[in-house]
Design goal:
The structure is a homodimer. The first copy, chain A, has one domain: Orthogonal Bundle (Arc Repressor Mutant, subunit A), CATH 1.10.10.10. The first copy, chain A, has a three-stranded antiparallel sheet. By secondary structure, chain A is α+β, with helices and mostly antiparallel strands. The structure holds a DNA duplex.
Chain lengths: 117, 117
DNA sequence: CGCCTATATCGATGTTTGTCAATATCGATT
DNA sequence: AATCGATATTGACAAACATCGATATAGGCG
C-alpha cells in the first residue's frame, strides 16, 4: 500500500480548476439503487423495446406492436416490459384488451445523471 | 435467435415541435453493444469502484486501496476491475508491484449519450 | 537466490437472468 | 354464456454471473 489513503467522500477543494471535476464516491445504498436501475437497462431487448416505444408516433406502443420487432415470444416481451415498468422507465396503461406503454419522461436522464464520471 | 427483423429507423418528422423529441429506435447491434457496456456498469461494487477511482486525489487508485472500501476479497475486486477495464471505463497501468487504475475520460458520458430518451 | 508483497488466474459454488411452452386472466363480441 | 384475442403469470431450464479459496505470476529486496 503506497500511502495511508483514508478514502472517504472528499470535498476538500470545492472549486478546483483542474479538468476532471472531483465528485464524491457513491455510497453503498446509492450504488445499489443505481445498479438496480442500470440492470433494467442493461439488456439488448429492453433497450430496443424502450427505444421503440420512445420512437413511436404517439409516444406509446402496445405489446402486440413490440413482439414482432424484437423477434421474441409474447411472454418474454411482456416480462421485459414489466422489468422496465417496475424500474420506472415505462408506464403501463390498459385500454380494453390492450396494454399501452409510454416512456416516463426524464427517467433515463435522471439515472444517467447519477453515473460516476 | 435473431430472425429477419425489419424495423427500420424512422425519421419521418425531423423537426416536429412536440415535446418528447422523436429519436430513432436502436438497431440490433447498437442495442447489443450498449447493453454490454451497461452490464459492466450495472453492479453496485463496480459502480463504487469506478466512483472511488474517479474521486481519488490523483485520479488513480491501486487494488490495495480498493479492496477495503468495498469489503470484498482481493480476487473479486481484481475481477471487477478487469470487467470495467475491458469495457473501456478504466485503464490499468502497472508500476512496480502495484496496478493503478484511472477513469477513461468521457467513457461514461459517451455511453450515457447513447441511451434512449 | 529466496522470500515477501501485490495482483491475476483458476476452479468451484450458489444465485440471478433470459427464454419459452403452458396456462391463467380479463375484456370484447357474438 | 361461449368464445376469441391480448396480455400476464407460472414453471422449467440453461447460460451468465458474483463470490471465494487456492494457486500462479511477477516485481522488489534481503
Amino acid at each position: 500500500m503506497p500511502t495511508a489513503l483514508p478514502l472517504l467522500p472528499r470535498e476538500s477543494d470545492d472549486a478546483a480548476c483542474g479538468r476532471p471535476a472531483p465528485a464524491a464516491a457513491l455510497s453503498d445504498t446509492d450504488a445499489t439503487d443505481l445498479a438496480r436501475a442500470l440492470k433494467a437497462l442493461a439488456d439488448p431487448t429492453r433497450l430496443r423495446l424502450l427505444s421503440i416505444v420512445a420512437a413511436s408516433p404517439d409516444g406509446e406502443a402496445c405489446v402486440c406492436d413490440l413482439t414482432e420487432p424484437v423477434g421474441l415470444s409474447q411472454p418474454t416481451v411482456s416480462h421485459h416490459l414489466k422489468v422496465l415498468t417496475e424500474a420506472g422507465f415505462l408506464i403501463r396503461s390498459k385500454r380494453g384488451t390492450w396494454a399501452y406503454f409510454r416512456v416516463v419522461p426524464g427517467a433515463v436522464d435522471r439515472i444517467a445523471a447519477l453515473l460516476p464520471r
